[in-house]
Structure prediction request, 1255 residues.
Amino acid sequence: MEATNGTPQSKAGDWRSYERVLLPPVKDLHRLEVYEQHGGYDALRTVLTDDSLTPGDVTQAVKESGLRGRGGAGFSTGMKWSFMPEPDDRPRYLACNADESEPGTFKDRQLMEYNPHLMFEGILIACYAMQIDACYVYTRGEYVDWIDHMQVELDKLYDKGYVGDNIMGTGFSTEIVMHKGAGAYICGEETSLLESLEGKRGYPRYKPPFPAQKGAWSQPTTINNVETLACVPLIVNRGAEWFASTGAEQHPGPVLYGISGHVNRPGVYEYPTGMLITDLIDEVAGGVRGGKALKALIPGGASVPPLRADMIEGVTMDAESLREAGSLFGTGGMLILDEDTDMVSWLRRVTHFYQHESCGQCTPCREGTGWLEQIVTRIDEGEGRLRDLDLLLELGDQMEGRTICAFADAAVWPVRNTVKRFREEFEAKCKKSVHPTGAEVSAGAETAA
Amino acid sequence: MSQFNVKRPIVGLPEQDPEPQFSDDELVWTDDEQAKIERWKGQYPDPKAAIMNVLWLAQEKFGWLPPEVIQLCADTLDMDYARAFGVATFYTQYYKEEQGEYVLDVCTCFSCQMMGGYDIFHYLEEKLGIHDGETTDDGTFTLKEVECLGCCGSAPMMQVSNGPYVHNLTKEKVDQLIENLRAGQMPTFTSVTLPQDEDEMGGNRRTDVQPEQVETYQTPPRAEATE
Amino acid sequence: MPTITIDGTTYEYEGDHKVLQFCLDEGVELPHFCYHPAMSIPANCRQCLVKVGTPKINRETGEPERDDDGNVQIQWFPKLQASCTVDVQDGMVVKTHRSDEEVQAAQKDNLELLLINHPLDCPICDQAGHCPLQIQAYKYGPEGSRFEFRKVHKPKRVKLGPRVTLDAERCINCTRCTRFTDEVSESGQLTINQRGVKNYPLTAPGEDFDDPYSMNTIDLCPVGALTASDFRFKARIWEMSSTPSITTTNATGSNCQYWVRDNLVLRITPRQNMAVNEYWLPDEDRTVYEQFNNDRPTGPQIRTGGNLAEARWPQAYARAAQDLSSVDPSEILFLGSAHATVEDNYLLTQLADALGADAPRYIPHVEPGAGDDWLITDDKTPNAQGCERLGIRAVDEQMIRSKMDAGEIKLVYVLEDDPVAAGLFTEEQLKGVSVILHHYNTTNQTLPAADVALPAAMVVETVGTYVNQDGRAQRVRPAKEIRGVNRTLMMEMGKARQDTHGTPFDKWYNEENRVNCKPSWELLPEIAERVGHPMDYAKGPKQVMDEVQSTLDAFAGATYDAMGLKGVQLEDVETGETV
Prediction:
């Protein structure tokens, strides 16, 4: 996106002097005592004790803040909460999605490591706003150390009366349960997560009915990502306006960027949304490793389309700008690839991932992901044909939008866009074809040149 | 280029009636374990939801999940054996086959791939003389190629036996790790410091993590596998 | 009344429907694999995709928006929808492959994907010929495949249980089988195992798939992944005829098809009847097919000089008549049968009546605890209810034994049963008694004591009526030829492809498979005539049943036409007081 005056415009304001709020620089903030010393659980107390704050008001504030889910889909959190039916005699559940498995994404783990109470507080406020009876924190099984650490803090919360019956003496009660996954990417999909929570194979469910009507154990359920819930206490403490005015207008708030790949300083960074990608790469992450040129960027995890280096000029990290640029915000897990990267080889690994993680329920995904991998592998091994590239694109059309969940879409997008955006690399790897008239024609080299 | 041909074993016929690995005397829960299970059962509206926890518990207890252990888990929760079996086979972290003493789950998913995950994986293959999914003859190590473990910034990395993560792997670090494991010394939890914390707080923020357990995000040199 | 428009045709509807089922009910065919009306909807095969739209509603007025021509504007769902999951709504517009190219393409694409890892071994697959995957691939699928790689290999020839064999490579993971064991039979014995493209259904390790209803998964399987262990490679579907009938293993009278090739019954499959067995058939109803083929008698026999010797039919009738006439009617015990049809039992009562003997009794075959409150009953006979309604009572064992001991029984006439095996008499006790026996198999334990042995047609060879335990009268039709019957002349017999389309060379059969037996409705009038009481049923059992239903209230309404394929529910009567 080009700014009007011709120079790239960040939407993150004066980000160089940004003060972190999700991961503020406080030693041992992960401990309840320290968290409370720094104003922790004030937001919860406010929400529970201020009689003028009804559950609906909290939801409204979240809606007004413009908070969008940080798990990948970027749906308005306040809207999602408002889909919950009016409380009746049925139990109601919240699932905190801590099944962070999107390749290239590692920010929730850091949040759970350094500021788990922000998440717990967010959960409790969400539970109040939606009148939830129990929240399950579905954490991927690989994060066993973090689960153990969080359990210690959760036990403290129970001891202190911040979770369980009659929280803070206000009469509001809710439970928080840590649930440990066991190795399945698909369980990050919200309905698959619910199946897994119920102790079943993680097969996504079709919608409607949506989880708000029929979720865990067929009861009204909302599923929110860790970072999303961690934003909630900030909204309560600092106000929806503050949140809405931080970062990009349409996709506001502080956000954790997980930067990995060929940069000098990878890691998780907290800044407002709407950061210029170039700022993030060149300044925040210290530039491309070895002074190399940038080749490609995957802005938000494996499932989003990669952007070529020449496509990121002026693009900011928020849903709108990235959509215009031809990608998605996803999880904000940015993979930076330098000029020496073999995109075919990279895509081969991506397709292998989707083949390995497809749950196998729907035909197009179960069969298609493996087929995609085989075609890309063949190209990568130099045995591909030019028509394989078209087949990859056609196969993508055959899979996309025809399955129960969005996994097939997520598997197709990187394939389609990598093939389209780096086509010459693919062509260069394809086998030379023999022209029907007998003259040998170089398929790849010529087109690439 | 593309040196990541990983040998994938051909899946044979499922053993329909395998010899039990554990005797009936062994297939019992201790009081402590039973208490844990009861607590988990109470945490869900339907106690069957505790199956994932119970399978985890069984795996910790028995090392892996042969059929009779899965059956024990199913019986414990009064659920169909077949359903428990279906759950156990869906999730990759449940070991349906006997594993080495240490399981090395090397991440090769694309961030790690780009940072040399396959170098590490192939180095281990060579060092241990085994391929993906195989166990060394002495039963010490099982090597696995796994999908993203959520530590892309400190790639390449691995997880040891469904436990601690080992970050920023190099060949030297792998050598050291293997040596330590042979000596029975498991790696411990490692905290990877946020770059912003280094700038603003001079390093790691957690005082309960010992300095030797702290790493920073690093970028390894160019991976051989991508050259 | 609310309406829905499918491919331009508008249908009125009432109540709640899913689009797929609604289309099927209306005769609009939609390809599908995983959907089954009796089970939950997983929507996983993705074959039934259609385009769905609903009227655009103006938010202010609440009225549908119209274009310039006054047509209601339709808002199309952004993606194709699996019609099995979509609720029918008023004003909904559905486009299937008949009217929409995108849907057509989607169905074709899906079939290509379904087939890439499918072994395509139709030439050796039992399912070929009636395989939903094969049929729909021909109908809606692509002409070829662009898949050029090695297919995923999975276990083949896995013995899931005593009766079901799995070929996992053929499986398309529709989960019908696992849903059946979870939701219908509730044995929970099957699960999908593994993940992604490697997955397939399996029992837990070491577990046998011995669900008493396990073979229903074979019918449900839309491919050849689950096949019947004892039917594998026996016959191609187009070589067999299938005849709609009912099973006689128990008192449910489950509706079934008998599959016959060369006059051998090779398998028995369920036939839908929502009033009886719905879609299902217990395994015990299916595994009995061999009794129709094996140990069948070669012809009538009469005892001469102490030995049973082969005879011609008229000789056997004459001998039976002679024996019947040579004893006092009060010394004859007529045994009806809960295995035999209403018509046959009725004729037997006619004969007993004509002779002035006591009314026939029948031997109950009840195994307490064998039933399951579903399709398997304690009663192991199909027609005890029919006997009762005819006024035939269960035998009073003690009384009969004491009469036997006292020598008051001189002749026992057994209609299609085995009193020795049933423990009513010992072979020894029958030594001094004349025994006329209608029997099915040479294994009949009363046979060694018989003086006249009359091979009787079994349920697959005769025409008749059975009344199940709930008072439902249902017809059986001949599925296989016996000596003297020609399938092309027998209008109701199921026909195989070669019967209708084959050359004479295709219509070969082995003569020995045509059993030399006769239906009891043919045997009894022959004997009756010879004892001086001719019966006039020129039109056979149909005429018999007409008489039964018009003279006995307990059978009112049960004409052949009324019973048709689904049977007639008879009025409840106090059994034991009807005649």
